Amino acid sequence: MKLKEELVEQARCHPLAADAVLALALFLLAVFVPNDHVQPSSGPGIVYAFEAIVFGALVFRRRRPIPVFAIVVVGSAVVISMQEGKSLVLTAAFIAISTVSYYAADRRMSIMAWLVSGFALGAGSAIGIGSVVRFENVSAFAWSGFAAAMGAAIRSRQEWFAEVEQRAIDAEETREEEARRRVVAERLRIARELHDVVAHHIAVVHVQAGVADHLLDTKPAEAHEAIAHIRRASGSVLDELGGLLDVLRQPDEPITPTAPAPGLGGLTSLIDSFSASGLSVDVRADGVPEAMPPAVELVAYRLVQEGLTNAHKHGLGTATLDFTFEPGALAIDIANPCPEGASPGRSGHGLEGMHERAKAVGGTVSTSIDGDAWLVAARLPFEPAV
């Protein structure tokens, strides 16, 4: 069984060699196996020559099905017209008919192959027998139709299997796409639920904070009760956020660190790390720093980090970093010389991320090229933190 499977696999991988072996085997059978019912009316040399042409053409039946069909059918008709009976060349003819029907573009071509081959082989048989009304003539016509139908059936079966396989692939892809869509929909639902939970508890905190502020001097006991409400509401929202964010987190995503988010206080170590890696950074500050919200400090830190990363990757080893503290705003300017023709903003998603981060806190980021220098200018407005 295993040997049979290996032979079938080898024949599938080497079709030309398989057809050559088939053609040689049929030719040897036609030449060396005696058939008492076949009496050549012409010399055996001519018959063998035509048989060699017929079986030899079978070698190329898959590469040139129509020319091989014409050669084999005509050659077979000639051979059986020179013999008073059946011949093994009819096997070659039926193989050629099946092949051209298998590769036919439509059913009409299969029917045409059947009719042409049936009449040609029937005429050859009639000439060889010397009679038109004989069973052999009708049999040649019928077997030609069977061969054409068999080739078309094999093609239809393979097309059906291919269609079933493609449907299975499409169904699997559709199932995966549906699963991804449901995951996205569920995440959106969770995000809406998160928004509702946070909005509710923050509203409670806001109202109770106003009550506590109003009653703190006149009714301390009630003020303390309002503060207790604030504590419970804030604890609830933290618990809800933790649970929902655990659901939203990817399975391979690391646990969120408990360290505080980086801010302007961490810029010194950040710049030192770039200096240690070979980037010389000239830092300048102008204006009076104001207390700013942690979110703005985080965005400022990330903008500086991304800007200096681009300067280190695409620049010439130096960069200037200017901070301008304005009333209610922080301006950050990064400049670094670049090699001729370089444009750091055209690769990767860093620039897009900088724009999105600044936009998240109501700020802006602009980039430009001034001579041989790449410039990044950011402005982050904020309400001074209390």
TrEMBL record:
Membrane-spanning segments: 12-33, 45-61, 66-82, 88-105, 112-132
Its EC number(s): 2.7.13.3
GO molecular function: ATP binding; phosphorelay sensor kinase activity; protein dimerization activity
Any Gene Ontology CC annotation: membrane
Catalytic activity reported: ATP + protein L-histidine = ADP + protein N-phospho-L-histidine
InterPro entries xrefs: DUF7134, HATPase_C_sf, Sensor_HK_TwoCompSys, Sig_transdc_His_kin_sub3_dim/P
Classification via Gene3D superfamilies: 1.20.5.1930, Histidine kinase-like ATPase, C-terminal domain (3.30.565.10)
Domain DUF7134 as annotated: residue spans: 10-119
Keywords: ATP-binding, Kinase, Membrane, Nucleotide-binding, Phosphoprotein, Transferase, Transmembrane, Transmembrane helix, Two-component regulatory system
Pfam family, one: DUF7134
EC top class named in words: transferase
Residue ranges of domain Signal transduction histidine kinase subgroup 3 dimerisation and phosphoacceptor in the record: 186-252
Keyword presence, Hydrolase: no
Protein name: histidine kinase
